[in-house]
Amino acid sequence: MRPALMTRALITLAACLFAGVCLAQNPIELALSSDAPQIKTVTDNLALHEVQILFTEVMRDDDKRVTFVDHEFQVDDSVYFYPASSVKFPVALLALEKLQELQGVNRYSRFQLESENEGSSFTNEIIELFVVSDNQAYNRLFEFLGKDEINRRLADKGLVARISHRLSVPESDRLQTERIKFSGNSAEPIVVGPISNQPIEVLALQNLHKGIAYMEAGERIEQPFDFSEKNYLPLSSLHGIMKRFIYPHAYATDQQFHLNQDHRAFVLKTMRTLPREAGYDEAGYPDSYVKFLMFGDQPGRLPERFDIYNKVGYAYGYLTDCAYIVDTETGREFIITATVHVNANQTFNDDEYEYEETGIPFLAELGRLLIAD
Description:
By secondary structure, the chain is α+β, with helices and mostly antiparallel strands. Helices cover 31% and strands 19% of the residues. The longest helix has 17 residues, at 3-19.
């Protein structure tokens, strides 16, 4: 345990022994009380940084049945934050779920969007999506599902969300999907779509209009930026997706992601794959490239002690990481989902966000503090 945390823990323990009773302290609040500069830079102005955190330690009994010990900080589904690429996680799971329902194709089958000249496969797209958070990989899976089916399938599992658009492309909120053609086992190709979706429902949440200005087509607009039609995936749902995926049997059948054994093993392997292990240049894609919690601010290779299965998101100044972390030395298991906003000038789309200076160091130190021995 770090010295600052140990001091606070000893003080708390002494107080408990003196009083003869002790209420369990929230480990998130303990971590946020740290005087580490990476933490204090954010906690000194929590309102500005819109911090929300969920932390679960997974306990197993003698029969290996799991119990979740959950803690939270400022989590409120009614207060909007932009989830960015974290939406790729549920869309990847749902795309595989739907793929299993088609006859004659699998994750190795070649498919092609009508607007593209080259084909791909679900195996390739999901690797790109998790290992380097590729936007176009997500967009292809979005075309396969359509927004209405994404949201229906999530709602059926008891997950609150409103996924409405593609990422980083023109007409990202276009309602009709593209036709997708699969080269299956039969002589004739298998075609999915186009799918017509319902108009985007405007969100009714708090904090949908943010900042003081935004940039559009090179012009500064002096008014708050409107997120009311952007993707919505609250922290509780993102955390719940990870729980359902890692521990499906802790949930009723209708709340699970229904992936076959091969697909589940494939996603698990892919989520913990580092860019260099997938053939990316280590100079441009270090181990910490999309591993914010614990190691986001660390150069060099990640230690082998920890297995990290995660999905991050970063855009509009929002940094989010949802991670299942296993300490292979102690056998302890954790799920951490956290978001922080770094946009000091309160202007959107100007590419002036404090990701490297503030956001990633905060998430990295937060992860280290929460999982400290």
